[in-house]
Amino acid sequence: MSARTAVQGNAFFASLALLGGMLLAVGCGPSYPKCDTDTDCHAGEFCVNGMCQQCRGDQDCPAGQSCASGACQAIPGYCTTTSDCGVGEDCQENVCVQAQTTAAPPPPAPVVAECVLAPVYFEFDSSTLETGARDGLAENAACIKTKGYSSVHVTGLTDPRGTEEYNLALGDRRASSAKKYLKSLGVEAEISHSSMGEELASGADEAGWSQDRRVDIRER
User: Fold this and answer.
1) How are beta strands 89-92 and 214-219 bridged, if at all?
2) What is the pTM of this model?
3) How far is CA 42 from the centre of its chain?
4) Could you report the per-residue pLDDT of 114-146, keeping only the tens digit for each?
5) pLDDT tens figures, 16-63
6) What angle do CA 91, 97, 101 make, to 5 degrees?
7) How far apart are CA 203 and CA 209, in angstroms?
8) 3-state secondary structure of 39
9) Domain 120-219 class?
């Protein structure tokens, strides 16, 4: 055999040996999904404890997911805005939480105008309730209800003209008329009445006498 033929033969066998070593090396590597390094895994996978996994830690997962047992899984209740949450929830630090509600302040108490019980006036020698007297009694009725009086007293008075006996009777009729009208307006307070006739009269002419012809209403 010539020296040239021998060299060619040696080169051929060396190539076969090298190819065989490469094939042996490939054939002896781990079989997927087993791995020795990340290069044994698919793109985007990691070699963790000898197995190809989707992630090593949370940093390998998209927002809203965490790494659990080598796989990226959705984080329960994760959010980026309140619109991602349910009714009555807010998004706080990427977690849906129950919304904090602040109770509206109570409305201001209605202002109640101060009221007073006022006298009601009559025409001369009359116990009839004219329009002005009825209006005055309506205002007194409202005041009794507003202040919650449990009982009131109505006193009838007259001007000084006429006999004492007549004026006492006239004052009693006036007080009785006022009492009945107050009751008709829904006053639930106990109402008593009496007459003082002309005893408290102070008028000396018609202007003064018109102020004497009245009933006074007081809380009892």
Assistant:
1) unpaired
2) 0.51
3) 57
4) 899 999 999 999 999 999 999 999 999 999 999
5) 555 555 544 445 668 989 999 989 999 989 999 999 999 999 899 998
6) 95
7) 5
8) helix
9) alpha beta
